[in-house]
Amino acid sequence: MTDLDELRAELDGFAQPEKKKGHSAREERIIAGFEEIQRFVDEHGRTPQHGEDKDIFERLHAIRLDRIRALEECRTLVTPLDHQGLLDGDYAIEAESVETMDDDALLAELAGAAGAPELTELRHVRSSAEKRAAEEVAHRERCEDFETFKALFDQVESELKSGLRTTRPFGKNATIELNQWFILDGQTAYVADEGEEFDSPQGKKDARLRVIFSNGTENNLLRLSLVRALYKDEASRRITEPNAGPLFSETWEEDDIESGTIYVLRSLSEHPYVAEHRELIHKIGVTGGKVETRIANAAHDATYLLADVEVVATYKLAGINRRKLEALFHRIFAPAQLELTIQDRFGHPVKPREWFLVPLHVIDEVVQRIRDGSITSVVYDPATARLSI
């Protein structure tokens, strides 16, 4: 018997170890889904959120996490994996309509957590609507008439640098309208045209847009496709409309002056073009001191066209934010900026930027509109020499 026991002991070393009980296919899907949520948290530093401003996959992750939290079976299964504390605390399931989601994608993503019948695994597979939207946004062509829009792009860039425009996350105001500006995939995008509205298959209003991009390309795509693309691009931004902000306020900033003067100058230069259009060419500025002191050295300063100037109008104001006020004037009169290059005292070419071909009475109207607060949406039309809204 002893020999047999020894033989059995030796043979036990070659025996296959007992197989541990594995997970069912459904449990594997639940675990895989939870691991996807964990990867999302690692990548974004937060749990997936609900809301139409979120990427469709983030919304699906959020619904799946709700289901896992709500079902005791699921919680028990994935609790040993929860190193991020996703299951800690008492969570109220956040309701969200799923009417706009692709049915197949939603069912596939929720199959594990919701206990649906066996379905083919569709993780990492985009819905057909998402695929169409991505393809549509990616399909851009050369904009043949880009020169028509280039001045607009240059103006918007200048207004962003001056602070007259700012950028905000797209989700803060999830609408797209004609003549609005966005940043998508690192390119400035302008909605140049919009077709007739129609009802999309999801029951939402949609329209075909012509979108011009700052790299000289364009795209004719659906508005809802552009919305999806802006949501998907985490770096996308909405460019705000020109807004001078509070020119007159009770709280003082670094660029504010307690009292100051808007001054309008006319050049006495003998340059042929300036002499011919002298009654129209004006320089507009703001100073907190004396205007006379500001222009004392005009004849030796290229900013003043290397010539003496005369003061043709002044306006006393209080509580002025100088930077915003000057940016406002430049925005309104940008279409009429004087295109003139002169040589400075050292023979170097200089292109002064603060002179405009604008009648004095129009400048006076702008100042009055600044005072009464109606200036925000006003633009200047050089062809008619008038302001318009």
Task: Please give a structural write-up.
By secondary structure, this protein is an alpha+beta fold. The chain folds into three domains: 25-125, no CATH class; 131-239, no CATH class; 256-388, no CATH class. It contains twelve helices and 17 strands. The chain has helices at 2-12, 25-44, 56-70, 72-78, 103-114, 128-138, 146-162, 223-232, 272-276, 291-294, 322-333, 360-372, and strands spanning 141-142, 167-169, 181-184, 187-194, 198-199, 205-206, 208-213, 217-222, 237-239, 256-267, 281-287, 309-321, 342-343, 349-350, 355-357, 379-381, 386-388. A seven-stranded antiparallel β-sheet has the order 1-8-7-4-3-9-2, sandwiched between helices. Strands 12-10-11-15 form a four-stranded antiparallel β-sheet, covered by helices on one side. Strands 5-6 form a two-stranded antiparallel ribbon. It is elongated. The termini are far apart. The model is unreliable at 13-20, 92-127 and 244-258 (pLDDT under 50).
Question: Topology, pairings included?
Answer:
Layout: H1 2-12, H2 25-44, H3 56-70, H4 72-78, H5 103-114, H6 128-138, E1 141-142, H7 146-162, E2 167-169, E3 181-184, E4 187-194, E5 198-199, E6 205-206, E7 208-213, E8 217-222, H8 223-232, E9 237-239, E10 256-267, H9 272-276, E11 281-287, H10 291-294, E12 309-321, H11 322-333, E13 342-343, E14 349-350, E15 355-357, H12 360-372, E16 379-381, E17 386-388
